[in-house]
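Good morning,

Attaching, inline, the backbone tokens for the sequence recovery test we're adding to the shared suite. The designed sequence is right after.
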């Protein structure tokens, strides 16, 4: 994990939104779903996961709507990367290096081992506290001077804490070495990983001055950079550059994030009208549509499509702009084109189904249902997909399936109270023991982890 990482623990229940680059919250974490960005990150990680022996583990990269340069892992199935890291990284290799490091944590089983260390530390802490209290009581009964009672209790606990932090520093060093190894095995440069950690080290160097290195969970900046330099600069691929087409895709997603997340004046400063590059035009087109100038935005997007006619995400953007501009019927054709061109179109399929449903034409309800079921078969944790499915069934008058889909939408948003309520109603609409009844019963009887009922 990067030095700037915040301490995050616990499981993350995914709750996603299918609209490009718009954040949704998953247990307090604002998650961004976007087909284009996710495909690029998938292409970044697949070679690394393959050499790490993790290609069959279905590990995903999840984007967090946070402007800090940060990445972390919280379980063995997901790597979390902040939007700020994607926006700040000027070349793909920088992000690839960070992803390689985080993959090192997963491949090394660091999370499960850390949990064991935490459990052991907790047990040791309790024992140390009891022993300290016992020593105080024994000394008091014998009439001896107990000295500093607080030190008798906290002294052993401080030693345990330092031991645990030492273990965490060791894990970070191991992840650095593993990341460099994965990059070498995929014939990629480790320079991006080195440059990234060096930049972060420079930023915290002043803050780290005079800090006790044994109270840090990460290696001290100078130590880490020195160790990385030894690892990285001996690689035969140190000077290898990213492919030109990959650099363009990287620049496009940075522009996309800026267009969606930055203020319009910020976009104008980053991508002035004098910049006629494709990424600059992309950012300006997004900012234009976000600020309600639909006609100008569509014209700009059409210009981008003319320059890149096989880019599915430009058609997706056009469809999204038209759909959100209350022109659902006009959004359908570009979204159909996007679905045909995209390698992983589940999120775009949800948007296309939304456009079909928004036309209020009952004749397309079956098409929307089939499309949503296809998308949800690939990615079942898209709340908007289930919500749109509920609307489509509602238009057909199938209230049982509509309630079941609405319950599933609430469930994937972790709104368990609403999910149980709707699922209980759905059970009354299905024959007892039927597949729909069983699914509804599963939701109605679900108890969240920890026994918390909301």
């Amino acid at each position: 994990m990067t030095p700037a990482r915040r301490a995050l623990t616990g499981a993350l229940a995914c709750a996603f939104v299918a609209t490009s680059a718009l954040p949704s919250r998953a247990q307090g974490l604002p998650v961004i779903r976007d087909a284009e960005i996710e495909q690029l990150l998938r292409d970044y990680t697949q070679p690394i996961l393959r050499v790490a022996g993790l290609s069959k583990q279905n590990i995903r990269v999840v984007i967090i709507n946070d402007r800090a340069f940060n990445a972390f892992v919280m379980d063995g199935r997901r790597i979390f990367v902040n939007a700020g890291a994607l926006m700040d990284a000027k070349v793909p290799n920088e992000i690839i290096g960070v992803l390689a490091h985080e993959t090192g944590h997963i491949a090394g089983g660091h999370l499960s081992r850390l949990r064991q260390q935490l459990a052991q530390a907790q047990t040791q802490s309790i024992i140390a506290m009891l022993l300290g209290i016992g020593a105080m009581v024994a000394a008091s009964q014998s009439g001896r001077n107990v000295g500093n009672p607080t030190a008798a209790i906290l002294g052993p606990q401080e030693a345990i804490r330092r031991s645990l932090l030492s273990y965490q520093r060791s894990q970070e060093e191991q992840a650095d070495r593993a990341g460099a190894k994965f990059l070498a095995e995929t014939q990629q440069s480790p320079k991006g990983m080195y440059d990234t950690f060096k930049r972060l080290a420079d930023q915290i160097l002043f803050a780290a001055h005079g800090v006790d290195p044994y109270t840090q969970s990460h290696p001290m900046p100078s130590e880490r950079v020195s160790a990385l330099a030894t690892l990285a600069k001996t690689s035969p691929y140190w000077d290898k550059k990213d492919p030109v087409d990959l650099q363009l895709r990287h620049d496009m997603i940075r522009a996309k994030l800026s267009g969606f997340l930055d203020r319009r004046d910020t976009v104008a400063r980053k991508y002035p009208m004098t910049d006629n590059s494709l990424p600059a035009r992309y950012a300006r087109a997004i900012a234009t549509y976000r600020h309600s100038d639909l006609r100008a935005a569509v014209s700009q997007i059409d210009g981008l499509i003319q320059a890149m006619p096989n880019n599915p995400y430009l058609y997706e953007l056009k469809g999204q702009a038209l759909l959100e501009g209350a022109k659902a019927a006009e959004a359908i054709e570009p979204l159909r084109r996007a679905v045909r061109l995209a390698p992983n179109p589940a999120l775009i399929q949800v948007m296309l189904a939304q456009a079909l449903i928004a036309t209020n034409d009952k004749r397309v309800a079956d098409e929307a249902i089939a499309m949503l079921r296809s998308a949800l078969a690939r990615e079942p944790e898209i709340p908007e997909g289930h919500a749109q499915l509920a609307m489509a069934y509602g238009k057909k008058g199938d209230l049982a399936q509509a309630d079941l889909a609405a319950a599933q939408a609430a469930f994937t948003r972790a709104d368990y109270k609403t999910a149980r309520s709707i699922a209980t109603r759905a059970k009354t609409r299905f024959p007892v023991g039927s597949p729909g009844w069983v699914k509804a019963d599963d939701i109605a009887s679900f108890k969240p982890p920890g026994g918390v009922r909301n």
